[in-house]
Amino acid sequence: MQESMKKTHAMLQIKDIEFKELNIPFNTAFTHASASRHSTQTIWVKITTTCGLTGYGEGCPREYVTGESLESALRFIADQKKVVLEDIHDLSTLTDWVNENEKLIDSNPAAWCAIELALLDIIAQNEYCSIENLLDVPIIRESFTYTAVLGNNKFSAFKRQALQYKKLGFLDFKIKLSGNLKEDTEKLDFLSKSHSAVRIRVDANNLWKNKDEVVEYVCELNSPIFAIEEPIDPEQYEDLQAISRSLAIPIILDESLRRRSQLDYVKKNPSNWILNVRVSKMGGLIRSLKVIQEARKHRLPLIVGAHVGETSLLTRAGFVIAQAAHDSLLAHEGGFGRYLLKEDVCDESLMFGRNGKIQYSLDKLSSPGFGLAINS
Ligand SMILES: [Mg+2]
What we know:
Layout: H1 2-5, E1 14-22, E2 25-32, E3 35-39, E4 42-49, E5 54-59, H2 63-66, H3 70-87, H4 91-100, H5 102-107, H6 109-126, H7 131-134, E6 143-145, E7 148-150, H8 155-168, E8 172-176, H9 181-194, E9 199-203, H10 211-221, E10 225-229, H11 237-247, E11 251-253, E12 273-277, H12 279-282, H13 285-297, E13 302-304, H14 312-325, E14 329-332, E15 357-359, H15 362-365
Magnesium ion binds near residues 203, 229, 230 and 276.
């Protein structure tokens, strides 16, 4: 039925690809083991077509996740602009480009993500359909429930934030670990005692060097956490699996999951893993959807992740992969909007409200393109 809603229009001709750094200050700093951030670190792309359409894209280069910097991302877009402008005119030429340039995107995922989202936006608008409709993702939810993510702050700030989340009715929590046993224990104890019926996971952002240190630390924490994210240096799948088995909890792969081929290391043992899929680090929606498709085939549970400081555009893109994750979706991160950003890219900022939810009607989910009134 979705197919028939698409109208086929003439092939698009891109007129221009503009790009810049988007620097929006935060209302409050956010810290974890790999970085502390006071403003966005974002690439923003605007694509215009000869028929008068405008599309927008966003990517979050992070040295410690994808090896990209703002400079490398800006350089990548400048280098690829001409070929993208000449070669891509619809979904088929876009998909071909993504498949033919896999290695190039592997090294520049956030930069490509910014271009790809803007391209998908204009292609969907041209076909007068939503991004979900364009990519054949069925819409199964009109509400998205977010995790309360608590940064690595001093206990007083942690406590204040945890209580704010509690007041809003959040039930799912992720804590960024510091590696200081006393501090981390204090935080976990506070959260599990003050909040009943909550689910807690922790993110170590590659804090430790070896698996034995992790097992010892988590045993000493002695807290009912249901999973641990990225405890050691990325991509050490054997050691990560050993940690999962020793602690009897799954490992969440984030820095260790940036491309589909990495699933080869984990797909045989789904009970040891949870995948954190963030659109920007995966290199856009087309690649994210392929990872999700393969993950579901192997019964690997999924978390839709987010980079700190994503605007409403990447939040909206996250809805697409949350729909695609279907019943494999375990948790959803992001949705901070103006809670974190001093200003957003659209007047109606996408941000969680009561019970950590964003309600988004079928009507809005069916708007052409991403359906956001961007004013950036
Ligand atoms: Mg993480």
